[in-house]
DNA sequence: CCGCCGGTATGACATTCGTCATCCCGGCCG
DNA sequence: CGGCCGGGATGACGAATGTCATACCGGCGG
């Protein structure tokens, strides 16, 4: 019996995945959590063989959780097949990476394969991740781009990061250049779609 | 036996919902589709009692599908509890509106209740929808905001909508005013979060 | 029939952005 | 030890953006 823990913030989705895996005779869902920061305690309590992690969760992101988890196989299950996400997931040592628009049958298969010691990654995604490459953005450029999301002005960003307006402009300019965008909004959009933020 | 059709573009989620409802003795999932524009044909073919519609799907959005569907009860199942979505859904005559972070048990309950002729809407969401109010944006203002998403310049927007740059600036200015934002990016963000786009 | 609203357009104006050059500092690598 | 890179800052300049007043047209409600 493969013991599985599921972490996803959307009740309906989490319940759905549990129901899906519950249909498999050799898989048992031993716990479900809705927040990233509850995963570690639950893993300690239930000792699952495999942990399914959504990336976007309150508390801690799935990627952050994956970095902290040891002694258990991790499969990232996410809506967004962003190259940067895959890269960070692999850096964090996950055993599998499945996107939510993959065929439903693939989930159970992935769980079995990582249990058997294999690494499960969508080949198409892997190619894209290699093609797009790693993030060229520095830490601060990321910070500034994140702060710029939602339409904050240079002054707003400067205040929220305790920087001078001029410095913020420099970082934005640099990030715009690196993303090949023509303004901050496009830069944010590009960086986000690549999983760089 | 309540016959249900599920429309959601993410295989894993759709499969999950199907598995979840499959556990109920009085509910039968008779069809699944992944695109909005496949729903009508599938409804004609399978004659379900209830149709579960995700909003964000390729082809047609769940809201557009709901407007076109007659003779069947519709439940919107969406990630985003945006007031504007709920409003448009109710205008389209749906019988239920469930957000994906609702408890899993609520889905089957919602299906049963709409079958019994009830209308199922999250009370909190209903309050927010009434509080926030309907969209103050005109059609063109929406168009321009949508086109502005992703960081397009005034010139880009003008080209894509066959307008003068000055006119685009006017619409943007007006939309920025109506959303209480301080620039176009914030306006897009606000309008989107309210479901006005 | 007149007025208002939405769509479209023009021109002028102040403000914000994006770019560039240049500077300082502290690590880290060769 | 001497670069080089990343973080941080300043000032200047041109381009893009946001605001406002004004105008014309077509439809719809009073």
TrEMBL record, chains A, B:
Q: Say yes or no: keyword Lipid biosynthesis present.
A: no
Taking every annotated instance into account, which residue ranges of this chain make up the domain HTH luxR-type?
Answer: 130-195
What the entry lists under InterPro entries is as follows: CheY-like_superfamily, Sig_transdc_resp-reg_C-effctor, Sig_transdc_resp-reg_receiver, Tscrpt_reg_LuxR_C, WalR-like
Output the Gene Ontology terms for molecular function: DNA binding
Residue limits of the Response regulatory domain?
3-115
- Name the UniProt key words of this record, in alphabetical order: DNA-binding, Phosphoprotein
Q: What protein is this chain from?
A: Response regulator
Q: Which stretches are transmembrane?
A: none
Q: Name one GO biological process term.
A: regulation of DNA-templated transcription
Q: Which Pfam families match?
A: GerE, Response_reg
**Which SUPFAM superfamilies did the record assign?**
C-terminal effector domain of the bipartite response regulators, CheY-like
UniProt keyword Isomerase, yes or no: no
State the organism named in the record.
Herbidospora solisilvae
Residues annotated with 4-aspartylphosphate modification: 54
